[in-house]
Specification:
Oligomer: single chain
Strand order of the largest sheet: 3-2-1-14-15-9
CATH topology of the largest domain: Rossmann fold
Number of domains: 2
Shape: elongated
Radius of gyration: 25 Å
CATH architecture of the largest domain: 3-Layer(aba) Sandwich
CATH class of the largest domain: Alpha Beta
């Protein structure tokens, strides 16, 4: 039975240009979306940018820029970034969009029975856009951003998070929201069991630098960025405007809702967001996929700490598909992963150039020697292809993208062994040779589909080289192959 799936990423701040961590999340979500579409499922894939943060206002001021002009420019940078990485989205939301502004106001009013005013004093980290407890600090600094939080005291509006303690416990006990991978779930459950406290959801206009969405009926206050930004997942669909998109993709119980995000913002998505939805009478998401950090020499890569790697420089050397492949092959959701150019080069040469690229070249060259045409009569590697498909599907169903890659890499290795074991190049019996070459052609045709969510441009090139157009069934059909430039020219170590 085909499914409807609504997929989102977290929306990044626009205080600086996108970095490799953003690329990881975008590409993971895109891989999931492409895979589901390949299965015939209907997918709506949304992302965007968070523009109403104090971070953004401070960055604009530091640059001597008007805030609106600054975020306009950065929003376009992120749009271009998505396009560069071949991330196929259905829509892009900016939190300065009028549809978002109106939707957030309506959401606030829908949840207002759990909103009250009170005075608060606490330690605020601008990098996290969150209040921190003393015990969360390391040597007086935020553990993520290595900066000292500010002591803040003011009268704000609060959300009654404590009221939802038991409901949230039951939600995760019964997997009403599935957290992937399982180790992330335990972290969330432990946080909830530690006791939930109400949190501030507004800031004074002064402290917000007069930037953000005003609180309904109180223009002296600005809505806290996390209460505002989380709503993007429904405002992009037209929440509060009787939108058919919203009805189809959020309200419809048949739709599966998946959020992709990093572990540093899991608390907001797994605790704050479900509680907010419950307060407003809006349905919950089905699945939250939480990835680890990309580290550089063991330290979290972060714009705030200035230890980021420019993905554009990596692409200049390796290309878009190889970087997409590396991010999906190297980094699992379950743990942090250290970025290494040397490791990227090694995987490029071993798995892409000597693996996939070499297999395509070998098979096409052998078929060309037979006249360039191949009729697919038998599938002599059906068992290997089916085994790959089972492992691949099981891996991608749980967002284990690295293991999905391992499945098709094994199939590529088996095809290479098949060539060598049968000494295909030396066979003089034309019927037998065509059967063997047909089996290898079929492996590559299936590999083109397996790699599509990972490296879509390469997938298209493989199909072009094999002579595949719109065909989905291959037995009994004839194909004209052609040799293309190497998919992955080998790089010097």
């Amino acid at each position: 039975m085909l499914k409807k799936i609504y997929i989102t990423t977290a929306i990044p701040y626009v205080n600086a240009n996108p970095h490799l961590g953003h690329a990881l999340e975008f590409v993971q979500a895109d891989c999931a979306a492409r895979y589901e579409r390949l299965q015939g499922n209907d997918v709506f894939f949304a992302t965007g940018v968070d523009e109403n943060s104090l971070k953004n206002a401070l960055a604009a001021e530091q640059a001597g820029r008007n805030v609106k002009e600054f975020v306009d420019e950065k929003a376009q940078v992120f749009k271009d970034f998505l396009k560069l990485f071949n991330v196929e989205i259905s829509d892009f939301i900016r939190t300065t969009d009028s549809r978002h502004l109106e939707g957030v106001k309506k959401f606030w009013l829908a949840a207002q029975k759990d909103i009250y005013q009170s005075e608060y004093e606490g330690l605020y980290c601008v990098g996290c856009e969150d209040f921190l407890k003393e015990e969360e600090l390391v040597d007086g600094l935020c553990s993520n951003h290595k900066i000292a939080p500010q002591l803040v005291k003011e009268k704000n509006y609060f959300f009654r998070l404590s009221r939802f303690q038991k409901q949230l416990e039951e939600i995760y006990q019964n997997d009403l929201i599935q957290i992937v991978p399982p180790n992330r779930k335990q972290e969330i459950v432990s946080f909830i069991e530690g006791g939930l406290k109400d949190f501030s959801i507004s800031r004074s206009q002064e402290r917000a630098h007069n930037w953000g969405i005003p609180v309904p009926n109180d223009p002296s206050q600005v809505i806290y960025v996390w209460f505002d930004a989380l709503c993007n997942y429904i405002t992009i669909l037209g929440y509060g405007s009787n939108s058919p998109l919203y009805r189809a993709w959020w309200e419809d119980p048949a739709t599966e809702i998946w959020h992709f995000l990093g572990k540093d913002i899991a608390k907001f998505h797994c605790i704050y967001w479900p509680a907010m939805l419950l307060a407003a009478g809006v349905r919950l998401p089905n699945k939250i996929a939480i990835h680890g950090f990309i580290t550089l020499e063991g330290d979290k890569m972060s714009k705030s700490k200035g230890n980021v790697i420019d993905p554009l420089e990596i692409i200049k050397e390796f290309g878009v598909d190889p970087l997409r492949y590396y991010l999906l092959r190297e980094f699992s959701l379950a743990q942090d992963g250290d970025f290494s150019v040397a490791n990227l080069r090694e995987r490029y040469n071993k798995e892409l150039a000597n693996g996939l690229g070499n297999l395509l070249n070998r098979v096409v060259a052998l078929i060309e020697k037979q006249g360039g045409k191949i009729k697919i009569e038998k599938n002599l590697m059906e068992k290997e292809i089916q085994n790959c498909r089972e492992k691949y599907n099981a891996a991608l169903a749980d967002f284990r993208f690295n293991q999905g890659a391992e499945a098709f890499l094994q199939l590529i290795s088996q095809a290479d062994a098949f060539i060598n074991q049968n000494q295909v190049w030396a066979i003089t019996d034309l019927t037998k040779k065509e059967e063997l070459l047909g089996a290898l052609w079929l492996v590559l045709a299936h590999v083109a589909d397996f790699v599509y969510p990972y490296i879509p441009e390469t997938s298209a090139k493989i199909k072009e080289s094999l002579g595949i157009h719109e065909e989905r069934e291959f037995l009994g059909k004839e194909f004209l192959v052609k040799r293309l430039p190497p998919l992955f020219p080998k790089l010097n170590s």
